[in-house]
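Recall the central idea of this unit: under ordinary conditions, the amino acid sequence of a chain determines the structure it adopts. In this exercise we apply that idea directly, starting from the sequence alone.
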Amino acid sequence: MDDNLLNDVVSAALKAGADTAEAVFAERKSLSVSVRLGELEEVEREEARDLGLRVFIGQRSATVSGSDISSEARAKLIERAVAMARLAPEDPYASLAPGDRMARGPFPELDLIDTYEPTAETLETQARLAEEGARSVEGVTNSDGGTASWSAATWRLVTSAGFSGAHAATGHSLSCSAIAGEGAGMERGGEGRSTRHFADLPGAGDIGREAGRSAVVRLNARKIASTTAPVIFENRLAMSLIGPLLGAISGPSIARGSSFLKDKLNQQVFARGVSLIEDPHRVRGLGSAPFDDEGVATVRRALIDDGVLTTWLLNTSSAKQLGLETTGHASRGLAGPSGVSTSNLTLSTGTRDQAGLMADAGTGLLVTSMFGPALNGNTGDWSVGCSGLWFENGEITGPVTEITVAGNLIDIYARLIPGTDLEFRGANNAPSILVDGLAIAGK
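Accordingly, the structure predicted from this sequence is:
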């Protein structure tokens, strides 16, 4: 579907009674192949084309979507959207994004499209190599399989205010899950990577071997007594500690008054020297886009600058509620109102690698797996189930399990110390993080 057809949809919506409107077209193709124990297990192919329409009548709005994009279906979709908007409750904050905030071309070249499209046979080979790598690790006794996939997606937006833009991206993914040990002592470990270009993926065997090692290192884990000790969150999961921050500074949360950071704008939240950078224009970035889902230009910014919280994450609606301007963080699907999201976040590095953080901490917990987080969004009280490695005098002494780590995020953020081992593994990345003196609940 091209811009002309979307313009026709928007024009037809205006003729049908809408004051303003925006149309979105999303197209996705994907192919995924899974193997287990050396045998082909699943081949899944998907192709989807969907049209979404949001219309505004005064302060009322409605959003509809459909996968049938024939002329007859488009006419019914437009009719339904306008009828729903006339019956919708009034929302003084619902509108298209302001015209002066819209992205203007030419858009930055982000190199998000890989022209290489792997065949099912190629993906099967990659999945097999990953699983073979995992099963080659001493101590691995079984496998949950390897999976390789490819996808290509396009998002196109046209509004009655004159905005027209599209961005497209490809994705290549490879993952593997291994099992070590026997019976009640079995442990699982996994590894996976996703990139925009196939050439940027690590070797399939390397991914498998890392999955195998992560399973084996968890064998013979012991329980520990409850205590208070330093905790290090390894780099591959450290952003999980930062995730609640994003919800707490989202415009909708601030507008509702349901955020533990609602009074912290332009205040010191992290230690000096700590920054959280958002770069939506990172070349080949998994979160890169030239504009947000309302067509507003995206920009590089420091959400945390030298420890200071600099901004809320705002879409058009939440910005209006707060008397501010949108920050280009709108995120929406084809149906429903906009939410907010970020893209390509990076936590700044410190001066010590993971071994150095352990040496500084002396005795404590290195978290390698997290599950079941719980958060009180109003107070920042946070806890998470985890397993990992215990260390004493800066040296690993063995795996530990069935642990809950808890604390208040306002206090945690103020005291966290980033390491130097930053790896760009996904859209959001951080080095290992040390937090001194967290409550650890064990046996």
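The first strand starts at residue 20 and ends at 36.
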